[in-house]
Amino acid sequence: MFAITSQQGVEVTDAENISFDNVRVENKTGDALKTVRVKNSKLDLIK
Amino acid sequence: MRSTLESCRHAIIRGCTFDVGDDGICIKSGKDAAGRRIGVPTEDVLVEGLHGCITRTAASPSAARCPAACGIWRVDNCTFMGTDIGLRFKSTRGRGGVVEKIYVSNVRMTDIPGDRHQLQPVLRRPLTAGRVGRRCGNQPPPVTEATPQFRDIHIENIICRGAKKAIVLEGLPDDGHPGHLPEKCLPSPRNRASR
């Protein structure tokens, strides 16, 4: 379990083989997840 | 004063309180070419606390800066209070080395101040503008032994209240080299580490 309350969400840039499992993010502004050049990853968030 | 482990093996930090204006616990192994030449990693490190390893007003309670190599360390059952950043793994081009086999579990992060402070539960930043490796035009610099690597990082059971940014993972933009990108970063109960 990975539970975070934050102003902004998750940012993943230039990464590969990242896996989120049971990650809960409660962000106040913007997107919950921003990705740039991410490969072979599973980035599922629970809102 | 922060606690720094540099090129150490079989270390335990247990039940400590750090109240510093810098990294609470810094794990590293040498620096740049000299660190790679000597090549003594920091490994087999355990950081834990029965009621928490509490860090206040620190930039990062647990930070890895590993130009040579760092491997097999575990952070368990800790509380970070009012720190700028929760967990930070960072390096820069030119330092090289490998940060791997990191297991972080059961960490609570609370009381995060505002203003200039920002807590990011997880921050990886191998791409910081250093002397080596600034981009030339649109071409990323070549991958060499001086390119740092992060891989096999497992993070689970993290509760954070009040971060500015939830998670920041920032790799290198270089392409075509499988080793310089993180192979795993798993906030996953299925990958619980066993020592």
Short description:
The complex is a heterodimer of chains A (47) and B (195). Chain A has 47 residues and is mostly beta strands.
Structural descriptors:
heterodimer, A: 47 residues, mainly beta, flat, B: 195 residues, 13-stranded parallel sheet, globular, disordered C terminus
Please describe what this structure looks like:
The complex is a heterodimer of chains A (about 45) and B (about 200). Chain A is mostly beta strands and about 45 residues long. Chain A has one domain. Chain A is about 0% helix and about 75% strand. Chain A contains no helices and four strands. The model of chain A has no long low-confidence stretch (mean pLDDT about 90). Chain B is mainly beta and about 200 residues long. Chain B has one domain. Chain B contains one helix and 13 strands. In chain B, strands 1, 2, 3, 4, 5, 6, 7, 8, 9, 10, 11, 12 and 13 form a 13-stranded parallel beta sheet that branches. Chain B starts with a strand and ends in a 9-residue tail after the last strand. In chain B, about 50% of the residues are buried. The C terminus of chain B is likely disordered. At the A-B interface, strand 1 and strand 2 of A face strand 12 and strand 13 of B.
